Amino acid sequence: MHIRFTPVRLAIAAAVLAIGSQAQAQNAPIKVGLMLPATGTFANLGTMIENGFKMYVAEQGGKLGGNEVQYFKVDDESDPAKAADNVNKLIKRDQVDVLVGTVHSGVALAMAKAAKESNTLLIVPNAGADVVTGPMCGKNIFRSSFSNWQPAYAMGKVAAERGHKKVMTITWNYAAGNESVKGFVEGFEAAGGKVSQQLNLPFPQVEFQALLTQIASQKPDAVYAFFAGGGAVKFVKDYAAAGLMKSAPLYGPGFLTDGTLEAQGEAAQGMYTTLHYADNLNTPRDNAFRLAFAKAYKVNADVYAVQGYDAAQMLAAGLKAAGGDIKNRDKLVAGMEAAEIDSPRGKFKLSAAHNPVQDIYLRQVKGNVNEVKGVAVKALADPAKGCKM
Ligand code: PHB
Questions:
Q1: Which of 2, 14, 111, 216 is most buried by a 10 A CB count?
Q2: What is the pTM of this model?
Q3: Residue 105 near ligand 1, beta carbon < 6 Å
């Protein structure tokens, strides 16, 4: 059959084509750049974040705001020296729409700097570096996790309430460890305690013996420690093996015992920590999340899985407000700012500096579970010192 292109037919064909390409533009995949550790002491944390993020996307039928999601990945090795190069692979080479990362505060600082310079959207799904939602805050910078100050400050208060007067601290000497100790000192000393000595070692070293000997000789009432991942496993075991658990109970932000209990075993039993998550919140929301996560990945969810999941939820809220258009930054940001995130940890909103305002739970280790004992501080907002939007 011979088809004649009358003007009317041509106009219809053009209109159909135009609609088609518009729909296609709207459905261009969202390019998500995952910059997380796949090796080193935080490798497992990176995996949990990635799995949490992907589980939320899978629950939405593989789409966010009606768009397919395409992943680009870089192993940041928790190495700040490689961070600028690594983040630029995602920004310049892969031209991602959004950066999701990372675990290590020093690496996150480089990511925030590169995100600011290129105006790339960044969602931090762990690293607590206070400055990210402090002096470096920005319209395009968000965090789904915590600031280092938040759980640390809460533990300072708890340690004082538990009657401790003289406490020593120990951590890795880098942004997260130092800020965590600073937050603890602030909370503890405001409540009448005194930090007698602050010990540290370079990240990610795990030769704790000399420092444990110092702790034993000083006889503090208690010790506050910031370690995470593989380093936390070894520290808690070494601390218990040194016979210190009874004479100087060990406290910390929940990273000390989150995702680590199976490996820590007997050593961690009874420890108190503070965090924005616990393993048995026993809410319908958290139970459903934990069941789905365990089914999908054959491991129990932890705080890192929650933070990855919520990073995806935050992005989805922004995309919804922007009608699925990742390029509509103003609407996207406004949507993320206004969202109430239905997190497994409990619902939260973001502060003006884009950091979660959240309850910090007091937890105690029992078996392989960080059991919730109560809320140490309700709706705690990071002070966000130096943030000007
Ligand atoms: C950090 O570097 O900010 C950091 C790393 C691991 C954690 C928590 C914070 O578990």
A1: 111
A2: 0.94
A3: yes
